[in-house]
Amino acid sequence: MKYLPLLLGLWLAPVLLRAACQNTACVEIGSKTVTVDNKRSALFNAMSEQLTGAPVNLTPAEWQTLANARVTLEDVATALRESTGAATNEEVIGTRFTLRQLFDAAATAAAAQSDTAAASALTAFPADSVTGTVSLGDLVQGTAAEDASLSTLDLANSLLALNAYQNGITPAAPTTLTGSELGLGSSVETVQFSAIVAEPPVLVCGPAGTQFRSAGLRMKLGVDLADQDLSGQLAANLTVNGVVLPAGVGMPSVSLSRLEFYAVSGRADGSITAVDALAQTVTLRARPGVVDLYLGHIDDAVFFDRNRQISPATDLQYTEVGTMQVDVAGTPVTASIRLRSHASGAPSGYETLYYTGPYPETQTVAPDAFFVENLTASLVDNMEFEIVAVDPVMLDPATQAAFDQTVAAIQPTLSQTYQTAMKPVVESLVTNAVGPALESSGTRLGEADITVMGVHLACGPGPHARLQPDHARGAAPGSVVFYPHTLIADAPGRVTFAAAHTAGWSHVLYRDTNANGQIDAGEAVLSGATALAEGERLALIAKVFVPADAPFGARDVLTVRADFILTGDTTVETLTRTDTTTVGAAGSAGLTLVKQVDKASARPGDTLTYTLTYTNQGADVLREVVIYDATPAYTHLVSAAAGPLPAGFSNVTVVAPVAGASGAIRWEFAGELAPGANGAVTFSVRVDQ
Q1: CB-CB neighbours of 630 under 10 Å
Q2: Which of 269, 273, 318, 516 would you call most buried, defined as having the most Cβ atoms within 10 angstroms of its Cβ?
Q3: What's the CA gap between 311 and 334, in Å, rounded?
């Protein structure tokens, strides 16, 4: 019997280890670039210039150095501690710094590893004039963020994207690139390149269930072509097609000279499904993002509004790509040849990836081997042309009638001629410009590079609570905005809330007792400490008052802080979330959405019903309202519907996958949503078996 205590101790040890420790993996969607050539260097410089507002002129060798060097967040945090006097790395990771401070800290970390070339490239990066601050904790989220190990290229690009998004940096002027720089051959003379970050990247260090994503990007390319005379091709095609011109009309001469090209790349995303730190294995599910390509013209105010969804039906306009000269009954006429086109490519679904190390290990998700070919072919096939007389603007009736007859006769053949001429140009732009530019975010067209940076057995006291989520909305001066949050206690304890933001703005925090995302009668202002049991959720709402004299474009960031203390402990665990409000014109920023689900948890085979309540909180009516959502990971659609329409809405069109499939859901409303009016849409999904 004297050996029994020892035997019990040996038997209990694994149980205690599992209770105190957590299997975590650090994951990013980041560039796997091996060779940085002149083309990639030019695009990386252009992308960086667009996200900073300052000229960036790193050489291919410097970008290559950044791609090859790696640093850990712990090393970067240590360098920041030494320069700021902070007490712990955790404190530093949660503190906001300028890009200059962060790049210099990364340079110090690289130099400590004797990588002087990477340190020099980071120091040379022109971050001094970049406005705003960001935190490493916003970039790498999770309980063990300092375990993350990134290439200095990914660290630099991710910090630029996060800073541009959080601080609302928009392109001041396009960056000019030559066709030869981009490997586009003699057909392209120059490209005016502009870009913004529509959604920030999220890198993670966490257990199974943790989600990650890449940045979402929007790019505009103003392409000046070497003028192509397509007159001969048009004449030959007219003959082959048996087209006879009206009497008195000469053979047209036509040219191709420029394009306006747009690319919208949605975030690639995924989640950690399993981690075994002892076996050093990780399982992920991930997918590339949706890609939309446009030819035509989209107003900059629309395209570079990261909070606005681009609508091809209303936002895409015709733009001139060339001219036509034709003699119509003795009258020389110059006409503008105009074009617009749109194509969208969406991945087929999530792929499962298995990682066994050594780490870092990168794998690529690319569900469709013909994604690029199909996308560019669709863009060419969808081209719409119009021919408009511009000189003289006014034609006499007889000449106008002859001109209209000519256009009607030649337009199908002219469209065919221009499609044939533009196909190689479009393909070259997609493969040599758009795809490589996306590599800065770890994505390409229809692909995403997923890197497991490391696997860890994280043992420690916390954190023992989670605060969710961040918000960003627009609002009119003098209005009120509501931001719902949820604190989840993973262990028993007590929590106290506070919030702070820009001077001149005010707020109130309410306890959302029924967790419906609204402040109902009897729901009180949060004050003092609240005790929570393990697994209990506390819902709250931050009510933000927008000053009546707030200028258009003003931005306020409300930081909501939760101080959680574990029962039986005195250590304060501080959790923060941010609510970003951007002031817009009255009537342009009034739509708010509240999303709820009917179950807190579900098992395979269970059905979940999501309800999205929409409300016009602005002062003016809202038109062309479109609501987007998608089936969550590991679920398939059962049904999607819209509830009773509020007064003013005459119809709703629901676009969704077929039952049993997964993907995007869209509700398109016809009519007007009056101030204060609201309604709801729903969809149900079944959890995969």
Answers
A1: 17
A2: 269
A3: 31
Q: Is 468 helix (H, G, I), strand (E, B) or coil?
A: strand
Ramachandran region, residue 518 (left: φ > 0; alpha: ψ -120 to 50; beta: rest): beta
Structure tokens, 565: 């203390």
The answer to whether 214 and 448 are in contact (CB under 8 A) is yes
Which of 209, 150, 182 is closest to 46 using CA atoms?
182
Terminal-residue alpha carbon distance, the chain: 49
Q: What is the pLDDT of residues 545-570, one digit of tens each?
A: 988 888 877 888 899 999 988 776 67
Among 295, 259, 254, 59, which Cα is nearest to 179's? 259
Report the run of H or E that residue 138 belongs to, with start and end. helix 136-139
Segments in 384-523 forming alpha helices (H): 397-429, 435-438
Which residues fall within 8 angstroms of residue 342, CB to CB, at 6 or more apart? 292, 293, 294, 295, 296, 312, 316, 379, 382
Helix (H) or strand (E) holding 336: strand 331-345
- With tokens 């906001």, the residue in question is 96
Q: What is the pLDDT of residues 164-194, one digit of tens each?
A: 888 888 877 899 999 888 888 788 999 999 9
Considering 109-118, 250-259, 558-567, the range whose residues carry the highest mean pLDDT is: 250-259
Q: Which amino acid is at 97?
A: F
**Could you tell me if 487 and 537 are in contact, meaning their C-beta atoms sit under 8 angstroms apart?**
yes
Q: Tokens 């990386």 — which residue?
A: 44
Q: Residues 253, 334: contact at Cβ < 8 Å?
A: no
Q: Are 228 and 313 in contact (CB under 8 A)?
A: no
CB 446 within 8 Å of CB 291: yes
> Distance between CA 105 and CA 99 in Å, rounded?
10
Q: Return the sign of the alpha-carbon dihedral for residues 584, 589, 594, 595.
A: negative
Per-residue pLDDT band for 336 (boundaries 50, 70, 90) equals very high
Distance CA 297, CA 664 (A): 26
DSSP-assigned letters across all residues of 549-589? TPPTT-EEEEEEEEEEEETT--PEEEEEEEEEEEE--TTSS
Residues paired with residue 23 on neighbouring β-strands, in sequence order: 457
For the chain, how long is the longest CA-to-CA vector? 118
Q: Please choose, from the candidates 571, 490, 570, the residue with its C-alpha nearest in 3D space to the C-alpha of residue 532.
A: 490
Distance CA 169, CA 198 (A): 11
Q: Is 29 left (phi over 0), alpha (psi -120 to 50) or beta?
A: beta
Closest C-alpha to 100, from 140, 52, 65, 58: 52
Backbone phi and psi for residue 410, each to the nearest 5 degrees, phi listed first:
-95, -15
Token pair for 676: 């204060």
Pairing of strands 203-206, 140-142: parallel
Residue with tokens 């101080």: 563
Residues 6+ apart with CB under 8 A from 274: 208, 281, 282, 283
Q: What domains are there in the chain, each with its CATH number?
A: 172-201+209-421 (no CATH), 461-589 (2.60.40.10), 590-689 (2.60.40.290)
Give the E-state strand segments of 172-315 in sequence order.
175-178, 188-199, 203-206, 211-213, 216-229, 253-265, 269-276, 281-287, 291-295
